[in-house]
Design a protein that fits this description.
The chain is α/β, with parallel strands linked by helices. It is built from 5 helices and 10 strands; from the N terminus they run E-E-H-E-E-H-E-H-E-E-H-E-E-E-H.
Length: 192
């Protein structure tokens, strides 16, 4: 793949992401509400596509279930996903086992948030802490939400802009858990 990615709008996702297959999506703090909205807008046009990720309770609340035949592959249970359990494949395994599973059966697509390209044309995965950075070279469809608010931490170079299939750009604050005062049980555990 070479050249520049196709710029897509809210309703354009099916033109770059075919029906069926498995897509790994950014999660944790790098969860993209923009990409999730595009998936929802695509609806049944994505067919029996499965969306997988490391969805964290209290942080990742969106459902990636755009059509009647779509499913989710999850490794942590959330309250929102427990409600739709008949459309969820729940596999409670460790991070290392998750990576091995995806290495043995790679997704055909990754939908991820990244930073704008640097001077050398690389987009950083920033706070993405699932497996998009490891698996993107093995995927055919690479759909990016280029977020100017995504930090560029030191480490991996990221993905060359020219290797992205399609992208949408837009500001989205990164997800975080609000600060709170510890409850008595948490204080007792910390003291121990």
């Amino acid at each position: 793949m070479s050249g520049m990615p196709t710029i897509i709008a809210l309703d354009d996702l099916p033109s770059v992401l075919p029906a069926g297959g498995t897509a790994l999506v950014s999660s944790c703090s790098a969860h993209s509400h923009v990409l999730c909205a595009m998936v929802e807008a695509a609806g049944d046009r994505l067919g029996d596509r499965r969306f997988g990720g490391v969805f964290v309770p209290g942080l990742n609340r969106d459902l990636w279930l755009p059509g009647q035949d779509s499913r989710m592959l999850i490794f942590f249970q959330t309250p929102e996903l427990r409600v739709v359990r008949d459309r969820v494949d729940f596999v409670p395994i460790s991070y290392a086992q998750i990576l091995r599973r995806f290495e043995q059966d790679p997704p055909d697509a990754v939908l991820f948030m990244c930073s704008p390209p640097d001077d050398e044309g690389y987009c950083s995965f920033g706070t993405e802490c699932s497996f998009v950075a490891d698996l993107w070279p093995r995927t055919r469809h690479r759909i990016a939400h280029i977020n100017p608010l995504m930090p560029r931490p030191p480490g991996r170079r990221g993905i060359p802009l020219a290797e992205i299939t399609a992208c949408v750009e837009g500001d989205q604050p990164l997800l975080s858990v609000p600060a709170s005062r510890p409850d008595p049980v948490s204080q007792a555990i910390a003291a121990h």
